[in-house]
Amino acid sequence: MKIIDAIEKDADNRISDIHVWRVGANDYAAIISIVTHFPNAIEHYKELLSDFHKISHITIEVNNCKDESCALRECFYSLS
């Protein structure tokens, strides 16, 4: 999915949860949960998605990965 690629190619970001749905004829909404060792401001992640013009509403949650490797998705389980 292109949205996942746009987020995950930056730093060691990993998408732990994503929901995208249609809210209008040409509009979509998205809720995205990100896990990373290098958290940024929400605006940073919205900028990574700026090419997705049909997403009119985005909610982003950023969780700091406290384990060794977000790249291996090990830290998702430590959020529970």
Any overview of this molecule?
There is one protein chain. The model has no long low-confidence stretch (mean pLDDT 89). Strands 1-2-3 form a 3-stranded mixed β-sheet. The chain starts with a helix and ends in a 16-residue tail after the last strand. The chain is 18% helix and 35% strand. The chain contains 2 helices and 3 strands. It has 80 residues and is α+β, with helices and mostly antiparallel strands. Strand 1 and strand 2 (28-36) form a beta hairpin. The chain has a single domain, classed as Alpha-Beta Plaits (2-Layer Sandwich).
Biggest sheet: strands, sense, closure?
Answer: 3 strands, mixed
Instruction: Give me the count of strands.
Output: 3
End-to-end gap: 25 Å
Q: What is the helix tally? A: 2
Full CATH superfamily name = Cation efflux protein, cytoplasmic domain
The amount of beta strand, in percent, is 35-45%
Global outline? elongated
CATH fold name: Alpha-Beta Plaits
